[in-house]
Amino acid sequence: MVGTMMDLESSPLERGNPRARSMEEYRALYRQSLAEPERFWSEQARTLSWFHPPYSILDVDLEEVDFSWYMGGRLNASFNCVDRHAAVKPGKPALVWAKNEPGEYKVYTFRELKHHVGRVANVLKAHGVRKGDRVCLYMPMIPETVFAMLACARIGAVHSVVFAGFSAEALRERILDAGSEVLVTANEAPRGPKKVALKAIADAAIEGLSQVRSVLVARRTDAEVPMRPGRDHWLDEEMGKHRSTCPITWVASEDPLFVLYTSGSTGKPKGVMHTTAGYLVYAAMTHAHVFDAQPDDVHFCTADIGWITGHSYVVYGPLANGVTTVLLESTPNYPDAGRLWEIVDDLKAATVYTAPTALRALIAAGDEVLSRSIRASLRVLGSAGEPISPEVWQWFNDKVGSGRAAVVDTWWQTETGGVMITPLPGVTPCKPGSATLPFYGVDLALLDDEGRVIDGGDVNGNLCVTRPWPGQTRTLYGNHRRFRETYFNRFPSFYFTGDGCRRDEDGYYWITGRVDDVLNVSGHRLGTAEVESALSRHDVVAESAVVGFPHPIKGTGIFAYVVLRPDVHVESKEQLIGALKEQVRHMIGPIATPDRIHMVPGLPKTRSGKIMRRILRGIAAGEREGFGDTSTLAEPTIVEAIIDRVASQE
Ligand code: PRX
């Protein structure tokens, strides 16, 4: 029986399914999670506090591709992350803000967090935000971002956080798609040695857009920014007008909690929608088990809140569990590569959760900085977002953790809400480079291209999930048909992840990378189609094709082949390449800037006009021959011509 909100006294970490302490216990609980899912997920729901418990655990309608968890339940994510902890441990640190400059911290207790969240929630209400409304947050890594997310949740509004590295165009597209009428941003954002002019970008994004009625501006620095009367308001001044008490809006389990845009292989970014109960149960459970979270831990996830890792493991997971969470404003290498470890020592962090791309950059800076910290508080070191190579895994384990902390390589996606494949620290024997075994309730299958399930070990296939889990995306905002087509059409009745994967003879999973046209650049997802469409918006471009290539720090770099219009006369190639890069920065943001742009006479296309990306990927990776059968190309000689051009521009 799922508990109600009366269970405030015991820590959420003491409830739910027990933690495995051995592989036997993991296997037994994993088996139970698949054999008796209702019992398993009902037990797990006891970690949340419910205004009204659910009457059912899972409803599935495969034809509609509709999954509903915990129907009949009423709850609130903000209550679960804030109020219930403030009620029993008001003085406990909830949020530690590690500011951009080293050594500068600001701590917010659960009581303070509750007050700030309540005030911001009252501000949102005063600006007309009602249950179900989408509020866009274009925010840096500052406490107000967490307040605003939880404030939305408190009143049943749906936040749509847009990563602060996205351009005005990208922000505008997301505001329009979600129909957001209120935008929360900051005047500017220090990030490492730079300052990002967020308000100016936000202004450009909503220029001429009457849809946005109110812009609330957090004051991060002293910088004055133009404020449009009637539309723009300083958040601190607005907060000063309101009391801190804001009554909770109890929502239904399947009411949306947030929308988060991510890239797909085609078309516009997709508004991945997560709902309240299932997402929160899953984020909290994975945080507890994957990091073996203890009540007095300081949990340090370096991810930006603009991505799913920030949502689930900076905000919702740890806070639902009542665990102190760190919000990092700077980059991991500001002012130098010792920054993360200095924070670990200063705050006695038990965990560090980061991305391989950050680790590669830190390794490149050398190990001397490690001697400035002792990192003795660390128990678990987590990695996510892209494959971690065995060398980087070993460095994390040996150098950062001194062999004392468990490394967990966690595989998951924006769509999965939380970790899906992971070792359990101190329990699962690791093989560096493998995310190891599925989490509880996660039933995986590898399918061949014809859709047949491939059994056994030492096999390769398309990674799919065979049954629903609570953290699963329910739909794409405003486009359920696209949701079905994107994830459930390729292999009917399976959720298709878009990743290729190998399963070894011990049943361990090794992600081999995306099998679709999505790139993973520095752990960020980008659709090649998005970059191509940005390039095509430049007058000189007739067509383009974008592929990934191996990059030492980013993992995958962006390689663009551009065909110019026949009438274009190029005076300076450098200038043109600069202009094209600027075009991409303008349309998407700096993260999408191509590392290499090559002007080519044409693209390798089949007679039916399909671009043979396999060949372009090969050339980008430095291959000059061995492209297999090119006889289906409309113009086979184009391959040589492209190779010549690329070679001459190197
Ligand atoms: O290709 C996989 C890769 O990142 C993709 C998901 O990206 P995103 O939606 O931004 O979610 C990030 C949440 C961590 C996946 O389809 N990926 C993620 N984790 C790993 C990974 N590839 C290999 N190993 C991982 N641990």
TrEMBL record:
Keywords noted in UniProt: Acetylation, ATP-binding, Ligase, Nucleotide-binding
Enzyme nomenclature, EC number: 6.2.1.1
Chain segments annotated as transmembrane: none
Record GO biological process: acetyl-CoA biosynthetic process from acetate
Domain AMP-dependent synthetase/ligase per the UniProt entry, residue ranges: 83-469
Record-linked CDD domains: ACS
Every AMP-binding enzyme C-terminal domain range: 530-610
InterPro entries named in the record: Ac_CoA_lig (IPR011904), ACAS_N (IPR032387), AMP-bd_C (IPR025110), AMP-bd_C_sf (IPR045851), AMP-binding_CS (IPR020845), AMP-dep_synth/lig_dom (IPR000873), ANL_N_sf (IPR042099)
Domain called Acetyl-coenzyme A synthetase N-terminal: residue spans: 26-81
MF (Gene Ontology): acetate-CoA ligase activity; AMP binding; ATP binding
Pfam families, per the entry: ACAS_N, AMP-binding, AMP-binding_C
NCBIfam families according to UniProt: Ac_CoA_lig_AcsA, PRK00174.1
Matches recorded under PANTHER family: ACETYL-COENZYME A SYNTHETASE, ACETYL-COENZYME A SYNTHETASE 1
Family the entry assigns: Belongs to the ATP-dependent AMP-binding enzyme family.
Protein name: Acetate--CoA ligase
